[in-house]
Every structure is written in C-alpha cells, then in structure tokens.
Design a protein that fits this description.
Blueprint (H helix, E strand, L loop, with lengths): L5 H10 L23 H11 L19 H17 L10 H9 L7 E5 L2 H15 L4 H25 L4 E5 H6 L2 H10 L20 H10 L1 H15 L2
Parallel strand pairs: 1-2
Helix pairs in contact: 2-3, 4-6, 5-6, 6-10
Length: 237
Amino acid sequence: MHKSGTTLISEILHSSGINMVEESISDYSYDTGVKYERESSRNINHSILQSRGVPSIEIETLKAYDASHEVIRNMRDIISACSKHHENWGFKDPRTCLTYPLWASQLPKHKIIIIYRSIEEVWQRYLIQKSKKSEDSVLDTTKKVFSTWTDYNTRILNIIRTSHSPYLVLDYAQFLKENRGFLQLEDFVGKTLKDKRKIELYRSKPQFSTALSLYKNLLYRKKISRINTKFKALKST
C-alpha cells in the first residue's frame, strides 16, 4: 500500500547492490520526491491502470485489469534488460498490488517483499497530504483511504495465497524501531544490507478522532480486523 514504507525498503536494497532504479541516486530522500521506483516498470503500471496523473487513492481498484500485447512486450523487454545488466534487481511500485498477476505471468523466479502499515498511520499520511494538495474534505479523504487500504491489502493477501514465490512480510512500525525485521530482510535476500532506517522519519503515529474512530468501527471494522489478523499470523511465522 502507498505510504507504507516501500521507499525505505527499495532504498535499502538499492544501496546494498540490488538494482532498483535506472538512474544513479545519491543523497536524496523521500521528502525530496525520490521514491526509488524503476521508471520503466512504473510506466507500465500506469499504462495498465490508466493512472498517470491520478492520485493513488483515486485509482479504480475494484476491477480486474488486463494488458495489451504491447504492454506485455514492454514487460518482457524490461525483464530481459534488467536480467542482462544486473545479477540482482527488482522494482517497487505500490500499484503493483493491482497489476502483480500480469507481472507474475512474465517474471522469472523471484521473491516478494511486503511491508505492511496500519490503516491509522496510512490515514494520517494522506491527511497531511490532503492539507497541502487536495480540496477533499477530511471525510472524503478518509473514505478513499479506507477503501483503498482494504482493497490493496486484500489483494496482497490473495497474492500470498496464490503465488508460488517466496515472500516476506514486514510491519513498518516494527521494522523502524526493532532490528528483527531488518535481520529477516537480510536473511531473505541473502545479503548484508545497508541500514537506511531513521527513526526520526517515523511520522503519523495513530491519532484518530472520536468521529473518525466511529466511522471506522461502523463501516470497516470487520474488514480491517480480518486483514490485521491475517497479517499478524503471517508476521509470526
């Protein structure tokens, strides 16, 4: 899901010798707009989702997606070029939660890294963004975030259930504050990794108002509880 720490994971991997982007990146951060995303794979996701210029919580998630022959050809070209030039490589884009079945049909043997963040914290990050860029009300933004969060994470759980690829699930808050997740990531990729975590960047601790807590409990309590329970079970294994 967007705003769940995907950039941090990609930065750690890229700085540790697992190529995650086309261009050279140094001395940049999420706050300066660098998200450690491979532009070519992100462009393909935009083509599939028709999401270029569309805010992440306004992408049509509740549908099945297909790809044209040209898009599939572009996927194969990217995979071929990356495999030719890099012993270890990957790509990160939260939109891949929606397009993964199409990528999986073309990718060689691969691993999946999932970083999971609570709805309360994701909501806070979007609320900060809303105050800067959006004319939506807090309630409108909340509705979109809750709907998107539940759909993305449901899709992630379905990917885990149906994929034969190895996967690792990390909890964002735990990953920043404790070493267990970092060591699990090292073990999963089979490399010593550079630690790029900065606890001062841990923002948006849950601060729900009474009204928003009521909204959550009335409309999304069962879905959120079910998703949280499944992720908790995955993280404990």
